[in-house]
Amino acid sequence: MKTTGNILRRSVLAGAAALIGATLAPAAYADELEGIKERGVLKIAMSGQYPPFNFVNEQNQVVGFDPAIGTEIAKRMGLEVEIITTAWDGIIGGLLANKYDAVVGSMSITEERDKVIDFVGPYYNTKRAIFTKAGSPVTSVDQLSDVRVGVTLGETHEQWARDQGYDLNTYKGLPELLLELDNGRVDAIVNDSIPVMLAMKAGQYDLAVIDDPSAEPIGAGIAIRENNPDLAAAMQAALDSMMEDGSYLAIAEEWVGGDIR
Known about the structure:
The chain is α/β, with parallel strands linked by helices. The protein has helices at residues 4-23, 33-39, 65-76, 91-96, 111-114, 156-163, 174-182, 193-201, 229-245, 247-256; strands at residues 41-46, 49-50, 54-56, 62-63, 80-85, 102-108, 118-126, 128-133, 148-152, 167-171, 188-192, 207-210, 218-224.
């Protein structure tokens, strides 16, 4: 049986794709790289709520691993970069509506997403993880069906948790998700492993990890609109050169403490 979340997600994606198809002339499907180069700016989007991958600092600047990667890719393409923050649950719709050129925001590459957008990369790998407060009586995946689980709205982890039939609270981003767990408003959270592990390592939160044998590594990619092979090739070439000359590793060490390829 399809869940409400499944139906809503597919309706949004299908609706956005139909809107683009209905309103753009065939000429609009020409590769966008030339137009971006003429403009001189690569517009990239992210939530701004996913530290240390992307977040807003005290100077109101969007910083982190993702903007650093996106900025370096733009530089190697001879472009300036414009960073746009937007709600995660509408970020694919914004891409399809031409509000930006790419999403460099730790987006997991999934079969469902690949039906309506294309991906460059992956540019790092992570996997699903489940966390509780240290000392929690919730110690196994089997117990999650009896407790309140927190997820970020629009992430792949939300759909996975809905498919399991969990009782969910949804949030806008990781900081809110961690705060709600810390305050006891949810009993467990589901998120990519790396950012939560880093928050634990930094001493920000005292959490425990629940073993999830079904979790498998998944790549995070740069999302672009379909039918843009030149743009995809140029971005991939820039990413590959970063990985080859050590620039990628330097960015990774600065923001996440090591290589996450």
